[in-house]
Amino acid sequence: MAGIERRVILRSLTAKGFRTDEGASHKRLYYWRGGQKTGVSVSISRGKAHKVYGDDLVTCLKKELRLSTMRDARHFLECQMDQATYDQTVAPLMRWQPLAS
To answer: Whole-prediction pTM value?
Structure first.
């Protein structure tokens, strides 16, 4: 499959509640939900060699995002899955309580 550009991944993550914590060689993004930091985080490389994430790196992100399928990971990273759907998908694994509307 075609790779996903790093800038698309970063835009998708920040649009869905992830906030950045800058590191030396990687950018670490933590998922915030209902005003609280959760246990979900991902590392994004700053290196020139990783401007496009292939299946191997998308698989790593899939695990960090706690998604079960590559299809879900690609939908999330390519902005086809919204934050509410992500919450519903990951909530049972994280034992999150539903957010008040």
So the answer is: 0.84
